[in-house]
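Notebook entry, structure prediction.
Reason for the run: the old model in the group folder had no record of what sequence produced it. Starting over properly, with the input documented here first.
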Amino acid sequence: MAVAFYGVNSDSGLKKLDEYLLTRSYISGYQASKDDITVHAALSKAPSSEYVNASRWYNHIEALLRISGVSGEGCGVTIEGFASAEAVATPPAEDAKAVAAEDDDDDDDDVDLFGEETEEEKKAAEERAAAVKAAGKKKESGKSSVLLDVKPWDDETDMKKLEEAVRGVQMEGLLWGASKLAPVGYGIKKLQIMLTIVDDLVSVDNLIEDYLTAEPINEYVQSCDIVAFNKI
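New structure, fully documented this time:
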């Protein structure tokens, strides 16, 4: 089912996006897709740290676009007054000119309940679209899919905050994926989480030693183990 967002560059729109991403890694599904590109391109700038989930997601997509591009189709997303990812990524030159001329003619007739898009926002969207197109042409580096077991200190550890802390680790070439809680025993649960890494940029051992089991995350994480490691 297609997802719809309105006024993503306004405070209320960013708040809605942030709430939506609280329990999700991507706009739709379990991998980055054209839906993520559409929302990413519609944003005139990176969300502030006030919007923790939106900021986390934005940085994920930003890093992925710089490295290898996004190939997932997604389920479809609608942004008020913004084109789809496919149209943004590869607009035919003649059609783009025709649409631009048509938009100019319709400007006086349209009523935008969420505020008109500024020239700065339009320029930023065009630059992002160009970056998406360029990123798709880059040679893809070797990647690996990793499954981690992240264990808390005890049954009183807040697992929601633990996962937020884990996903808060951001670096180029790292993309967090699906996760779930699995029982360990004595009422304790562990976090099982997928991640995709670019081999040349991310070392899983360093990720665990320098980030996931170091301060401040070790307030929640007692240990972290590699369950599966597969080349993509």
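Summary: The chain has eight helices and six strands.
The old model has been moved to the deprecated folder.
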